[in-house]
Design a protein that fits this description.
alpha+beta, 10 helices, 2 domains, single chain, globular
């Protein structure tokens, strides 16, 4: 009997399968990475997945980011992650510099080796714009309720200090170190809002000064990052489509 011809069928692409089979880098973020965790802190996980190149050849493209499959979990597709990092997105840069790395394959390790290529004086614009939005919310809460959300005030102080130190030194330090107790006092509402507000204003001024004098280049090394992406995509394109499998057509033969 002549064997039935081989045909192909599509296997569903799900967030769970992209995370399970194609993650290149994952880490813990949030209070645990910052060194500000308390007994009730969640464990926030962030990651980067590399969507197989054949998925881009179809009308329906792979997602640029996804939530889950577990709670408190979020991931970016590698190209989107690199785009945001080149724009000095605070969340993405802090993910890239997390001290709590849980997994990195060869591509993930190369991404970590590229960390310095993403840094530039654009940090000033992106971090201060991010901080300004959160400061406006804090001020609105004070006007409406007489006090801010203290946890958010703590994290804004942390973010601005991190941005200032990055602009001064060229290195992003995610852990708060010996600032932990002072920041937790803010979270507990033990520091008057006027004092917190003054600290925030002073940190913004220090960020501006550091941006003028610090060692970061004007622009990130976009070419180096792009070369990395092209090389990774080419390697992926040489592999079979993992979401297409060969089957025998039992109706013919």
């Amino acid at each position: 009997m002549v064997p039935a011809p081989l045909e192909t069928r599509r296997v569903p692409v799900t967030p769970a399968s992209l995370v399970r089979d194609h993650t290149v880098y994952s880490c813990v973020m949030g209070s645990r990475a910052f060194g500000l965790a308390t007994e009730d802190s969640d464990t926030d996980r962030r990651g980067v997945f590399l969507a197989p190149a054949p998925l881009f050849w179809r009308f329906e493209k792979p997602p640029t980011h996804l939530e889950g499959p577990a709670e408190e979990q979020f991931g970016w597709e590698l190209e989107r992650f690199c785009e945001l990092a080149l724009r000095a997105d605070p969340n993405v840069l802090e993910c890239l510099y997390s001290p709590l790395v849980e997994y990195a394959d060869a591509t993930g390790r190369e991404l970590l080796d590229l960390r310095g290529a993403f840094l530039s004086r654009g940090v000033r614009t992106s971090f201060l714009r991010f901080a300004d939005g959160r400061r406006r919310r804090l001020d609105a809460a004070v006007r409406a309720h007489g006090a801010p959300r203290w946890k958010h005030a703590m994290h804004l102080l942390r973010l601005l200090a991190s941005a200032r130190d990055l602009l001064r030194t060229g290195t992003l330090e995610v852990r708060v170190g010996d600032r932990r107790e002072a920041l937790l006092a803010v979270r507990r509402g033990e520091v008057p809002w006027a004092e917190v507000s003054a600290r925030l204003d002073r940190l913004v001024e220090e960020c501006e000064e550091a941006a003028r004098r610090g060692p970061l280049p004007e622009e990130p090394d976009r070419r180096r990052v792009e070369d990395f992406l092209v090389r990774v995509r080419r390697a992926s394109a040489a592999l079979p489509d993992p979401y297409e499998e060969a089957v025998r057509d039992g109706g013919r033969g």
